[in-house]
Write a structure and sequence with these properties.
- The chain has 392 residues and is α/β, with parallel strands linked by helices.
- It folds into two domains: 3-94 and 213-385, Alkaline Phosphatase, subunit A; 106-211, Alpha-Beta Plaits (2-Layer Sandwich).
- The chain has helices at 30-38, 43-48, 50-53, 81-88, 106-116, 128-142, 166-179, 219-225, 236-239, 254-267, 279-285, 290-309, 360-370, 382-385; strands at 3-9, 68-72, 120-125, 145-149, 154-160, 188-195, 202-203, 208-211, 230-233, 247-249, 271-277, 316-320, 339-344, 352-356.
Amino acid sequence: MRRIILIVMDSLGVGSLPDAAAFGESNANTLGHIAETTGLNIPTLYRLGLCNIIDVKENHAVAQPQAAWGKMASQSSGMDTTSGHWELAGMLLKKAMPTYPHGFPSEIIDAFSAATGRGVLGNYTASGLAIIDELGAEQIKTGKFIVYTSADSVFQIAAHEEVIPLDELYAACEKARAILQGEHAVGRVIARPFIGKPGSFQRTGNRRDYSLLPPPGGLLENLSRIGQATVAIGKIKDIFANQYISCAIEAHNNQQSFEGVIHAMKQTAGGLIFDNFVDFDMLYGHRNDANGYARAIEKFDEYLPQIMAKMQPEDLLIITADHGNDPTTSGNDHTREYVPLLIYGEKVKPQWLGVRQTFADVGATCAEYLGCKALAAGQSMLELLGLEADAK
């Protein structure tokens, strides 16, 4: 049976897109700048062809990569998690989701307060850790929700788990999701619970995302309609609002994501295994921690041989990203970048796949290889890969 393991290295961009200046940053290169700043020891990714995609410090381009390699531009109007993943699944967003650099308007905050019966602290753009440090003590004292946003289209709600129980926090997110529709339809409402005392607050692993429903006709839907397995690991389930997912595996960090892939490969004979390795973005990109990001890439490189060893002859391993988040830039938000593309398998013809014009080429390739209905966007790469479409 045919099976695809699609791994998103969250935020591992490989250089600014031509339109990056319109998004606020035109000199980003997440992978390249990390390598220049800290160096990288990633022998498996080198052998696959990662550094054939772009030049990095101590260039490790190889004469004969083990994988097909290329890079992809985004055609969606955004540089966030939702638009990036949806585009990978063949759904382009031509209209950007709303963002709120000056906080949410009073009608949204007032409606949220009325629906939850609690007041609001914050309501401005902030780093999640910084705003908890700033307002956590007051949140404990008042019992109000901390609401904040970022450069992404998100409405984030933070609360101390001992002050506001998780069930109430999740219910508040559902109420916010119902309010944030129409012109205020943000990509995600995110529960951000934390614990600890002033001066030592820390976020917990009980985060939960409440996404918009994805548009119709995407990869997961089309696979589901022909009975193919669609396994979502980590925040994939939340990004796609739990739509057309046959099995969801919890994972809150890269180690758990790796374990989820191994478990899914043991349990799932065919279909799509879709995983997001979140630590690159969450722990290091947003915190401008180039060294931590580098070490996480190196750890990911250690995971790969174990995944590759469990692959069957018909399997494809696709490694890519959803946007950039260059930790060496002055800001701590996502960056508008090309993303890497590596496609590995026993029957794959290793060669340069070019600069793909949309992330949706991944979805189109998956759809054709697994035999489901073609997607509205994207061009399949099967011919370049030396593969044939599923005959079903």
